[in-house]
């Protein structure tokens, strides 16, 4: 176990992160980073639209209406006015429910934590929030969370470390910046968020539960509450990472945990722009390289899935998340189980050429031909694959003995193979039919146009208005 020198709580790296969150200016971002942020925000809006009708979201929105509170902020798509924490709660679960939000190579899920919280926080902002304000709050929160997660390493999520315990930190940093907290208040708020959350990343996926979605609801709720509590004078812990005796990194046993990443080049080097991927497929990111490779194998070589006798997939150690436990991954019975199953998503892509939300109906999950094809799929992990999500291989063997192999270095949507605005707009319109409320097409078109020019928008409430029913 790595040993660290004693650090007093008020010397913790969390203080430097809080300074970055509050003191960074929009002008500190490069044009490319602003463009990436605009695309990520637009992508998350699309995901929330489709997520509004998925799984437990209707239940959550109904409960939020009952819990109500002072009508401050809008629940997206549904339009109900509730307290800001409750709006963040409902918006949060929409953003994760279809599992099409972006993922960072070393930081895990990013934008789907932050945007639902920011949209809810608009309702209690004391002044008009511009698109530039919104983008700035988003990027600094993303950078904080990505640095925190990168210190631990994505590969350790399969061993039970709460790989996305940083979700509430994303939300809290974003709310603190947008709502005008100072550095000290932000630090305390982050300490509160850290104190009340923690979960096993592997366990919630292994069980196929809806907690992978619901955690975003709790994170957004916490982010706004912690921000307001800290602004009111309540204090949270400061020694989040390295403070004696209980800083989190002092109790993680892997030697490759690197707390220095928290502050190295802070404010000048942006991990956010290195490895963020938008998702073209509605499933766990660990399945995407496999899906892309099998789709290329089938399409390039005009393969009929009925001629396939074997499919051999090789991915990173992180891909274990989608192949274990074998009883669930080769025999999924629910949408969450199927979304986190490499055998299921590869079989579906081999037959249909794509993986979108229609892949996860009960009928599709239990399709006999797909189940039969899954039996022919073998998945191995190779510790030598450095990337967590990219560069996986798929080899298809046919009845006639022909073999076809594909390795896609970067799946569409990666920073090094980005989705165009046209790609993202197509994804947006593919999400629209799943909206829980059939808003007029004109409103969705307005939302698209506002996102294109988000850095020029003078009032972010116009975007909320476009995404809720007209009163």
How is the secondary structure organized here?
Elements: H1 14-23, H2 31-51, H3 57-67, E1 73-74, E2 81-82, H4 84-96, E3 103-104, E4 108-109, H5 111-121, H6 131-152, H7 167-178, H8 183-196, H9 201-206, H10 211-231, E5 276-277, H11 288-300, E6 308-315, H12 326-329, H13 335-339, H14 342-352, H15 362-365, H16 368-374, E7 377-381, E8 393-398, E9 403-407, H17 421-431, H18 441-452, H19 461-466
Report what the structure shows.
With 471 residues, the chain is α+β, with helices and mostly antiparallel strands. It folds into 2 domains: 9-277, 2-methylcitrate dehydratase PrpD (Orthogonal Bundle); 285-407, 2-methylcitrate dehydratase PrpD (60s Ribosomal Protein L30, Chain: A, 2-Layer Sandwich). Helix content is 45%, strand content 7%. The chain has a 4-stranded mixed beta sheet, covered by helices on one side. Strands 4-3-5 form a 3-stranded antiparallel beta sheet. The longest helix has 22 residues, at 131-152. It is globular and about 70 Å long. The termini are far apart.
Indicate the CATH topology of the largest domain: 2-methylcitrate dehydratase PrpD
Mean pLDDT equals 91
Order of helices and strands: HHHEEHEEHHHHHHEHEHHHHHEEEHHH
CATH class annotation of the largest domain: Mainly Alpha
What number of domains? 2
Classified in CATH, the superfamily of the largest domain is 2-methylcitrate dehydratase PrpD
> Rg, please?
22 Å
Report the helical percentage.
40-55%
Shape, principal axes of CA atoms: globular
Q: What distance lies between the first and last C-alpha atoms, to the nearest angstrom?
A: 59 Å
Low-pLDDT sequence parts: 158-163
How many strand units?
A: 9
CATH architecture of the largest domain: Orthogonal Bundle
């Amino acid at each position: 176990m790595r040993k660290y020198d004693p650090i007093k709580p008020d010397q913790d790296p969390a203080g430097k992160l809080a300074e970055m969150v509050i003191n960074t200016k929009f002008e500190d971002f490069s044009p490319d980073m602003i463009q990436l942020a605009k695309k990520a925000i637009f992508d998350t809006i699309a995901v929330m639209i489709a997520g509004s009708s998925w799984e437990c979201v209707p239940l959550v929105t109904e409960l939020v209406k009952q819990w109500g509170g002072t009508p401050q902020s809008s629940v997206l798509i549904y339009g109900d006015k509730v307290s800001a924490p409750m709006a963040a709660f409902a918006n949060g679960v929409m953003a994760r429910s279809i599992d099409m939000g972006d993922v960072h190579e070393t930081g895990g899920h990013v934008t789907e934590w932050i945007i639902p919280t920011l949209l809810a926080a608009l309702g209690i902002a004391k002044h008009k929030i511009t698109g530039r304000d919104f983008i700035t709050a988003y990027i600094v929160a993303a950078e904080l969370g990505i640095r925190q997660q990168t210190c631990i390493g994505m590969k350790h999520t399969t061993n039970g470390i709460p790989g996305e315990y940083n979700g509430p930190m994303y939300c809290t940093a974003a709310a603190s910046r947008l709502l005008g907290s100072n550095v000290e208040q932000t630090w305390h708020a982050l300490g509160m968020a850290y104190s009340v959350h923690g979960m096993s990343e592997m366990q919630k996926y292994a069980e196929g539960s809806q907690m992978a979605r619901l955690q975003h609801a709790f994170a957004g709720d916490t982010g706004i509450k912690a921000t307001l509590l800290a602004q009111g004078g309540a204090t949270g812990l400061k020694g989040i990472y390295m403070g004696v005796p209980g800083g989190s990194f002092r109790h993680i046993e892997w030697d490759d945990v690197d707390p220095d990443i928290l502050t190295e080049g802070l404010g000048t080097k942006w991990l956010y722009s290195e490895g963020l991927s938008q998702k073209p497929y509605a499933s766990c990111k660990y399945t995407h390289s496999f899906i892309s490779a099998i789709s290329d194998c089938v399409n390039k070589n005009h393969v009929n899935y009925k001629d396939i006798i074997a499919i051999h997939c090789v991915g990173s150690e992180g891909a274990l998340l989608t192949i274990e436990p074998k009883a669930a991954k080769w025999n999924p019975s629910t949408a969450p189980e199927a979304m986190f199953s490499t055998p299921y998503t590869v079989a579906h892509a081999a037959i249909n050429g794509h993986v979108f939300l229609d892949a996860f109906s009960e009928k599709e999950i239990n399709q006999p031909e797909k189940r039969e094809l899954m039996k022919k799929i073998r998945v191995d992990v190779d510790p030598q694959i450095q990337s967590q999500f990219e560069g996986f291989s798929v080899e298809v063997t046919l009845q006639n003995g022909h073999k076809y192999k594909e390795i896609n270095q970067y799946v569409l949507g990666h920073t090094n193979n980005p989705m165009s605005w046209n790609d993202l707009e197509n994804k947006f319109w593919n999400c629209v039919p799943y909206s829980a409320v059939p808003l007029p097409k004109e409103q969705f078109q307005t939302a698209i146009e506002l996102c294109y020019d988000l850095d020029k928008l003078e009032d972010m409430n116009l975007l909320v208005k476009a995404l809720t029913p007209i009163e």
